Amino acid sequence: MKIGVDIRVLMDKHYSGISEYTANLLTAILRQDKENCYKLFYNSYHYLDDRFKFWNGDRARVIGRHWPNKIFNYLLQKFFCYPKLDQVLGGVDLFWSPHFNFTCLSGSESGLKKVVTVHDLSFLRYPEFFSARKNFWHRALGVKKTLRVAERIIAVSANTKNDIIELAGVAPEKISVIYSGNNAVKREADAKPRSERFILYLGNIEPRKNINGLIAAYDQLRAEGENIKLILAGAPGWKNKKIYAARDGSRYKNDIIFLGYISQKDKEDLLRKATIFVYPSYYEGFGFPPLEAMASGVPVVCSNVSSLPEVVADAALMINPFKDEEIKDALKIILTDEKLRARLIAKGYERAKLFSWDKTAAQYLQLFKEVYEEKK
After folding, report:
1. Domain contains 187
2. What is the pTM (predicted TM-score) of this model?
3. How confident is the model at residue 190 (pLDDT cuts 50, 70, 90)?
4. Which structural domain range is residue 308 located in?
5. What is the rounded CA–CA span in Å between residue 350 and residue 261?
6. Nearest 5 degrees, angle CA 262-CA 235-CA 187?
C-alpha cells in the first residue's frame, strides 16, 4: 500500500501540540511498518528537505513544493483545487491528514481513500475563545465537508468523537478513537527545596486555557499565606491581553512569571523541578501536558471537563475550571498533604505508562489496513 501523508503541520520552527503529535506518531509508524510505502508532502517557499531527511528511507520519501504558503493554501488549494496532492505524490492508495488544512485530493472515483485525524473542535464548541481572524480561517477550511468525504476519521479522545458527531453531524461508525502517545518518559522528580517551590503551567497563552482563572486562584492561595511562585511556559496565542493584564493587576505579579516558548530541554527541567503542575483548561481534545507532568513525577491538578478525565482518570486532582476557589483549594491541599501528594505521584507514573506512541502507531496501521481493504 502507498500511503500519502500531509506533513505541512510540521512547517513551524517550534513544535507543540499537533505538530509534536504528528512528528512523534509518524516516527513511530515508520519504525514499525515494514510493508507499506510512505510519501510525505510538504509545501514551503524554502527548501526544507534536509530538515526531514531522517524520514527518507527505503519505505519513505519526503516530497516538497515551494510555493509561498498563502498562495498555495488559500488560492491554489482552496479556490482552484490545484494541484491534487495525491497526484503530486505520484499516486497513493490512501491519504492521511493528521490535521485540518486546505487539501485538494482526487475524488472517490479514483479509488483514493482519505483518513483525517481530528484533535478537537474547540473552534465550533467555543468560538468566543478565538480571534476573528482565527474564526474566519476555521470557517474557510470547510471542516464539515472534509469530515463528510473522508472514509475514516480518527478522534484523539471519546470526547472529540462525541463533538464530531454532535457538531459536525458525522455518523459514529466512521469515527475511531485512538489515544495519543505520551511525549515524556518516566523521570524521577528532583528534590524541591522550599525556597525553589513553584506551580507550573505549560501551554499556549490564550483564553481557552483559563489562565485568568489560574491567576485568580493563585492570588487567593498567596493571600492565605502560601509562599510559592507561578511559572507559565508557552507561546503567546491570541486574545491574551486580559491574561497579561490579570498578571499586572496582581499583588503578587513579581512571582507570576511568563517564560514564553521554551525548548524541550527547558521543559523537561521545569517538569522535574515543579512542585505542582496545573492545567485548568476549559476544553481539550486530548491534553498532553498533564501526562508529561505525571511521567516526570509531578502531582497534577487539572480540569474535570472535555477529554481530560479520560486522560488522567484518578491520577490527578480534578477541579471545575469555572470555579477559581476550587483551583485554589486543590493547589493548597497538595501543598499541605504529603500523603495525597505521594499518592498522586505514584498513580501518575502508572497512568502515564498506558500511553505510548508505539501503541498509537500500531492502531493507526491496523486502521490503514482496514480502510485499504474496504475498497477491494
Report:
1. no
2. 0.92
3. low
4. 194-353
5. 29
6. 40
